[in-house]
């Protein structure tokens, strides 16, 4: 069943077309990655689906209902983790539940559980500044999982991490969402990461961002690093890379 | 910066505090350096006073003796109490009113941009020349002095708080919006903690400005108060008294500021300089 | 393409309920930008003062219309006696204070930067320095040197120097590590390092410090003149107040405000030109 339906979504900033018209469907439980040159409106698309921005035209429906602002069952993982430095790791994870009015004891219990899921139990009493970038990002993922979402939106969550940590984190995320069976919209600029994680990869054009290609990745789950060397994966990576390179050249005026 | 009290995780990225000498002896020396400097300054003063042997340059002992003597006089104690009371009222108003107004203003970016240039203009002129206006409208008594002290302290308080509130990082606000948090909850859990470091700095800075302004106007128009006592002694040319009082003024200024500085450092450590989430 | 434009025209965009705190800052309110509001609100204050005092709502013993202040201020700047007795001494004292505070401040910062011990010893005192009402030493100095330029200079320099020191020190500390390493690899001497690396790298912060130093010099000179002196702008206003010359007092205040603003804007422009970080 189709979970997210975005139809002809357009966004302009101060008279400049930033995004679209763009249409995108996400089936239930599907992991969709969006790649594209920087500034193509990937994050804008995500924020529109997350209900954080109004589209200037078009519509978004999730689970059959028209979107009218942020919804409870959508969790967002932001680029720079958005941890609150004055709260302990545990309190950061519990923050989403606190915002929804869950009593303290109950929310701390759930938070501890999710913290264990991302392997940070020992750091519950630490402050975010005492953690590495990768650990902070795990805190943000744990927080996103506390509210039992059916849709996770992730905006380059591993963008600031080094290559090794990024791959390790990707597998961790994949493991977690597989268990939860929720849909994921994953914004990234790493082609390999997109191919590794997704059921489908959507390639966007330079500004105003439109969909250039929609590539299914038919690889079995669970995946390991070795999938990147399979023919399916190498072909997909090559196809995406060619599209992106052309777009980047266009954007830089190099054609 | 991390405090040594908190255990640091193995894979943290926080660098160890730089410039810290490793050895315990070095650390002791570093901690005592400011005290040594003060002792050296007092020592030089004492030596010069001994060499000059003049009535215009009293030695520290004389100054302190005169101060203790003056503190025995009920009129002087009354002056001191008066200044402290006016300072307390003015500072309280600066903190409460200035903090609230600045914070409220900062919540609207547009009005912060529109109004803060006017406040800054007012702030950047030498305010002391505006004191006659306070005398004209509030009369010669404590009201004009308190009013002027508030005026001097409240402008930077408003500016700093408005700047801090307008600069609350967007990412946590997006997070809050995605969780459908209400305005009050956002203020409580995000905006207020975000501006706390700026608020504690403003607490310290505005205290100095408020006290300074109060003292200046007491010198100008007072009939009592520390500033008045200082100026009154000029024709008498009793340097021991003047220096003693100056020491008292410095002590009155430094005691609360030292406390405020400790609070500021604590808050900064806990609430960060909000760079983590910007 | 046809389909797309049609969709754009017909589909009325849904308005989400985005909370106010996340909405972007509006460009205009009631059709006016924030700068226009700044000017409008400023003008409103002046016009209100003008009407209130013209209408006689406040006695002219208390307040005179801004237009009257301006006229009197204009006649003051052509008045030879005022120029010689009040404006010139103040401007001269401010200039000397600023020069001394600037040089002394930068030199002190260099000393603190060179010597770790001095820095450790001085830093806590610098941090709390402006909590101390420096003007409290003015009476001592008046007794020592008599009423005149010397006590004013000493107090103003004491007031203006420290802000230069702290800002310059911040600038010296901001030299990037790779540059420090490069200089070490090139074996630059202390003098060359100061001239070629330290001063240019710290220039924006030093300029910021000097700007504040100028503001503090102005405050220092005017405030001490105001408390006790026989010449100068500060004295002029105090004297006008004591002898109930309300219009003169307001004219003097207005003049000082204008001079302070011009110096402020001017120094900001100069600093902006020289600041490589903003290029």
From TrEMBL, chain C:
Record keyword Transmembrane helix present: yes
Keywords, ordered alphabetically: Cell membrane, Membrane, Transmembrane, Transmembrane helix, Transport
Keyword Glycoprotein assigned: no
SUPFAM superfamilies found in the cross-reference section: MetI-like
Top-rank lineage group of the source organism: Bacteria
Residues annotated as transmembrane: 91-113, 125-146, 152-172, 249-271
Ranges of residues in domain ABC transmembrane type-1: 87-267
Gene3D superfamilies associated with the record: MetI-like
Name of the protein: ABC transporter permease
Organism of provenance: Pseudonocardia zijingensis
């Amino acid at each position: 069943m189709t979970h997210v339906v975005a139809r002809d979504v357009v966004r302009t900033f101060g008279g400049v077309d930033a995004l679209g018209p763009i249409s995108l469907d996400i089936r239930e439980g599907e992991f969709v990655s969006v790649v594209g040159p920087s500034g193509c409106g990937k994050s804008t698309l995500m924020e529109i689906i997350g209900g954080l921005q109004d589209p200037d035209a078009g519509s978004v429906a999730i689970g059959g209902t028209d979107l009218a602002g942020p919804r409870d069952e959508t969790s967002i993982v932001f680029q720079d983790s958005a941890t609150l430095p004055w709260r302990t790791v545990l309190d950061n994870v519990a923050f989403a539940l606190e915002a929804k009015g869950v009593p303290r004891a109950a929310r701390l219990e759930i938070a501890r559980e999710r913290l264990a899921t991302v392997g940070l139990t020992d750091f519950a009493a630490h402050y975010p500044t005492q953690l590495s970038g990768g650990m902070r990002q795990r805190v943000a993922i744990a927080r996103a999982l506390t509210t039992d979402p059916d849709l996770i939106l992730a905006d380059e969550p591993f963008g600031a991490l080094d290559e090794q940590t990024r791959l390790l984190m990707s597998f961790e995320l994949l493991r977690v969402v597989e268990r939860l069976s929720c849909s994921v919209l994953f914004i990234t600029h790493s082609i390999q990461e997109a191919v590794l994680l997704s059921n489908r990869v959507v390639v966007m054009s330079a500004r105003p961002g439109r969909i250039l290609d929609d590539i299914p990745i038919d690889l079995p789950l669970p995946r390991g690093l070795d999938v990147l060397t399979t023919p399916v994966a190498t072909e997909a990576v090559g196809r995406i890379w060619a599209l992106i390179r052309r777009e980047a050249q266009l954007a830089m005026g190099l054609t | 910066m991390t405090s040594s009290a908190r255990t640091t995780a193995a894979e943290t990225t926080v660098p160890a505090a730089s410039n810290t000498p490793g050895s315990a002896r070095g650390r002791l020396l570093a901690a005592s350096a400011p005290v040594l400097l003060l002792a050296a300054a007092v020592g030089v003063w004492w030596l010069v006073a001994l060499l000059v042997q003049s009535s215009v340059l009293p030695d520290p002992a004389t100054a302190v003796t005169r101060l203790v003597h003056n503190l025995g006089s009920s009129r002087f104690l009354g002056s001191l109490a008066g200044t402290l009371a006016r300072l307390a009222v003015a500072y309280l108003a600066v903190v409460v009113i200035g903090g609230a107004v600045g914070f409220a203003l900062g919540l609207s970016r547009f009005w912060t941009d529109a109004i803060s240039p006017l406040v800054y203009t007012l702030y950047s002129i030498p305010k002391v020349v505006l004191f006659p206006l306070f005398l004209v409208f509030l009369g010669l008594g404590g009201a004009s002095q308190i009013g002027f002290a508030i005026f001097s302290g409240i402008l930077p308080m408003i500016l700093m708080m408005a700047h801090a509130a307008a600069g609350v990082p967007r990412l946590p606000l997006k997070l809050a919006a995605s969780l459908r948090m209400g305005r009050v909850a956002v203020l409580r859990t995000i905006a207020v903690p975000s501006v706390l470091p700026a608020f504690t700095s403003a607490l310290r800075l505005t205290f100095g400005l408020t006290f300074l302004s109060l003292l200046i106007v007491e010198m100008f128009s007072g009939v009592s108060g520390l500033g008045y006592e200082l100026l009154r002694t000029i024709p008498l040319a009793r340097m021991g008294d003047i220096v003693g009082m100056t020491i008292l003024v410095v002590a009155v200024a430094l005691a609360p500021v030292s406390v405020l500085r400790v609070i500021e450092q604590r808050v900064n450590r806990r609430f960060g300089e909000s760079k983590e989430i910007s | 393409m046809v389909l797309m434009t049609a969709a754009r025209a017909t589909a009325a965009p849904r308005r989400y309920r985005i909370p106010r705190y996340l909405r972007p800052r509006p460009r205009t309110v009631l059709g006016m930008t924030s700068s226009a509001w700044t000017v409008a609100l400023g003008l409103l204050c002046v016009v209100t003062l003008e009407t209130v005092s013209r209408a006689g709502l406040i006695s002219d013993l208390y307040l005179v219309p801004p237009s009257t202040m301006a006229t009197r201020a204009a006649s003051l700047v052509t008045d030879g006696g005022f120029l010689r007795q009040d404006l010139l001494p103040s401007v001269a004292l401010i200039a000397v204070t600023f020069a001394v505070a600037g040089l002394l401040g930068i030199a002190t910062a260099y000393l603190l930067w060179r010597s770790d011990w001095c820095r450790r010893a001085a830093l806590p005192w610098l941090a709390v320095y402006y909590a101390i009402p420096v003007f409290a030493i003015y009476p001592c100095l008046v007794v020592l040197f008599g009423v005149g330029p010397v006590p004013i200079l000493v107090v103003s320099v004491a007031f203006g120097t420290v802000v230069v020191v702290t800002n310059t020190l911040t600038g010296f500390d901001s030299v990037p590590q790779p540059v420090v390493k490069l200089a070490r690899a090139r074996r630059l001497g202390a003098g060359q390092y100061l001239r070629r690396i330290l001063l240019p790298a710290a220039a924006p912060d030093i300029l910021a410090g000097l700007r504040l130093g100028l503001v503090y010099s102005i405050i220092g000179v005017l405030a001490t003149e105001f408390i006790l002196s026989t010449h100068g702008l500060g004295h002029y206003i105090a004297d006008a107040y004591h002898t109930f010359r309300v219009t003169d007092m307001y004219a003097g205040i207005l003049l000082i405000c204008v001079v302070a603003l011009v110096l402020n804007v001017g120094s900001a422009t100069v600093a902006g030109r020289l600041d490589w970080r903003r290029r």
